[in-house]
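SAMPLE LOG
Freezer: B-3
Tube label: C17
Construct: single chain, 216 aa
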Amino acid sequence: MISVVVPTHNSQVSLTRCFGSLIGATVRGVVKEVIVADGGSNDDTLALADAAGCHVERGGKTRASRLAAGAKTARSDWILFLHPETALAPGWEVEAVNFIGRVTIEHQRAAAFRFGLDGFDARARRSEALAALRCWLFRLPYGDQGLLIPKRLYNKLGGYRDVPMEDLDLVRRIGARRLTMLRTRAVNKVGEHPRSLALRALHALRFPTALLPRRS
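STRUCTURE (predicted):
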């Protein structure tokens, strides 16, 4: 049913947590394959992927190129793009299957999960609240919220492009009317760099992105 694509580059610290959130869905047959699209890791990322039974695909230097490479080899009708630092909350597959069952070929839709942080302080809760407000107002989930999309729709839209903020670029092409925000949380580690947040804000406000640096 679902092919999971995880873009990695020296991601060994995060992968165990990410893979752990996929075990239940794999046992239930919801996840048919996990594709690790790697950008040349020199740590134990590939060893962990091999031990977990993942298919390893060689990607490029940018995350966009790795996402695209993983999607190209996906065999399922649905693709879940998931960052290595992101772990989906338990039971996510139940909501995903329910969503998939309501999507038709004539009216294809994509979905993202609710942003969460693993911190316990007020700052973490404020960040979650702001992310929820952004998604409610603009339907602009980031890549660290996961993206569940029919492969047919992904290909129709041209997939991930090697541009700054590749996650928002694809979400804009999907469009708000074709995007559903799920209730399940995509839980991330606390500690995102402030400059990354600033770049995302510029992109969301439709500032020109040609001069923005690409992320690796």
